[in-house]
Amino acid sequence: MTNQATMNGLGDPKVHFVFVPFMAQGHMLPMIDLAQMLAKRGVLATVITTPLNASRIKNTIDRAGEAGLPIRFVPLRFPCAEAGLPEGCENVDVVPSGELAQNFFEATSLLGQPLEAYLREQQPYPSCIVSDFCNPWTREVASRLGVPLFTFYAMCCFYLLSASNILRHGIHDAIADETEPFVVPGLAHTIEVTKAQAPSLFPGTEWEKMREGISAADRAADGIVVNSFSELEQWYVERYQEVMGKKVWALGPLSLCNKDAADTAARGKEASIDKDRCLRWLDSMKPRSVVYVSFGTLTHVSPSQIIEVGAGLEASNHPFIWVIKEVESSPEVEIWLSGGFEGRTSARGLIIKGWAPQVMILSHPAVGGFLTHCGWNSSMEAISAGVPMITWPFFGDQFLNERLIVDALRTGIMAGVKNPWIWGTVSNEASVKRDGVEKAVRSLMDVGEERQRRRERATELGEKARKAVEEGGSSYANMTLLIEYVRDKLQQSRNPLGSSDH
Ligand code: UDP
Fold first, then answer.
1. Which of 70, 181, 265, 280 could disulfide-pair with 275, CB 3.0 to 4.6 Å?
2. Domains in the chain with CATH codes
């Protein structure tokens, strides 16, 4: 146990949190951050993973080991063959097509038995399970083990409440036209979206069982854990808590558990750029001059759209770091990049092909803007770093996240995307053309009064975010309460008048 943990007075090694992430980067990474935060507070943390995912996060595992954190990473065999998936298909980002999505969830649910068998043998016995909402089958594991369950949503309460209100008010049945705007009922802000932009989680009849499972797990859970913080959306946390009828623990921003460049650079997959080279490049740029461009881990940006983004960045004349994922690389893109673009922009542009050390980049003082797909983790990472955003949502919760950033927080401007992207497809259309990209980058980065005010709001929010996870902050206090809650439950279960003696 670390000194810090002992100092916090919560260093009871018998309190044992088990984390069951869903194997997608945007779900796994914040949960690993959460496990590390709790381990730093002196509780034992077990993180369930799989061989492929464990090899991807090797740097994080090694660093946690070197720091002496009480944290275990446990790879369970991922049953690809049993679920009809190709071997090694252990993360959503390598599922070859949308048609295999159900198979991936099926494989994930088959982890239930080996997980339970493993946990039964553990000393100390698990005190609780924190499970991603995409793993509703953990409800039965927790129940059979006799331990509390917490559902983890790497989402904000603004989105969760919006989705819940849309469902309760029957909006999806009442509106036939996918493109007709409507005001989301029961929010503190006037938020307008279309039906297509606000799909229910797991839409369509084929996911009915999944939706029922998630609701059942939420009902059975002792509480809900979110990657958010009170100062960001207190009203939404409280309303969502009322709707769910149970405690909602806002413990974020979780990425802030990574304190320095060595931690932030090691987060997630092995970076495709040398950390020091990236830092040297950023150091050579003026403060807040660089726009960072990344569309997350699950989107597949088409070659024609990539070319429009590049042309817009070039025309904007601002320095940039631009991430192009491996899956997006193609002869068409390579020929376009090397046929003049890279040469013309080499003095002010850095392209990262593959995995970027995103949290490290966003935390650097040279970064002044983020062109983002509005995945919630990316949004929180920008908020934490005080970086204003250009919002370019693709699917899922991203359009509502855009509304939060643009309308409620007012720390972002829209790229102007109207229609959602369908996961697993690659459209040849460019939803924003080069002029649109240039205009958005200029609006965000060019000197002006509006930019100044947006920056001030972003800076202020970033300060609040960082304070939230420090000792005395709201998320820090919530984490203390969560640990105490689990410890009390553990003590009750040991009480001779209680039913359990583990
Ligand atoms: N990420 C990263 N490097 C990359 C791409 C993504 O570190 O090149 C991280 C990013 O910091 C975030 C997560 O992967 O924590 C992506 O989650 P998000 O919710 O933003 O988007 P998703 O990929 O799930 O759509």
1. 265
2. 2-154+470-493 (3.40.50.2000), 267-464 (3.40.50.2000)
| Residue 184 one-letter amino acid | V
DSSP 441: H
Distance 297 CA to ligand 1 centre (A): 5
Instruction: Give the strand order in the sheet containing 320-324.
Output: 349-353, 320-324, 290-294, 367-372, 389-391, 412-414
The per-residue pLDDT for 425 is 78
Say how far apart CA 161 and CA 245 lie, in whole Å.
13
Cis upstream peptide for 124 (omega within 30°) = yes
47: which strand partners?
Answer: 19, 73
Global model pTM greater than 0.90: yes
Q: How far is the CA of 2 from the centre of ligand 1 (A)?
A: 29
For 226-272, what is each residue's pLDDT tens digit?
A: 999 999 999 999 999 999 999 999 999 999 999 999 999 999 999 99
pLDDT < 50: residue spans in the chain: 1-9, 496, 498-501
Which atom, in ligand 1's list, is nearest to the CA of 372? 20
CA of 6 to the centre of ligand 1 (A): 33
Residues 212, 181, 458: CA angle, nearest 5 degrees = 85
Residue appearing with tokens 């009170």 = 230
Residues with C-beta less than 6 Å from any ligand 1 atom:
25-26, 29, 267-268, 294, 296-298, 323, 355-356, 358-359, 375-378, 381
| Dist CA 253 CA 93 (whole Å) | 23
Residue 332: closest CA among 296, 309, 306, 300: 306
Q: Could you report the per-residue pLDDT of 327-353, keeping only the tens digit for each?
A: 999 999 999 999 999 999 999 999 999
What phi and psi, each to the nearest 5 degrees, are found at residue 369? -165, 155
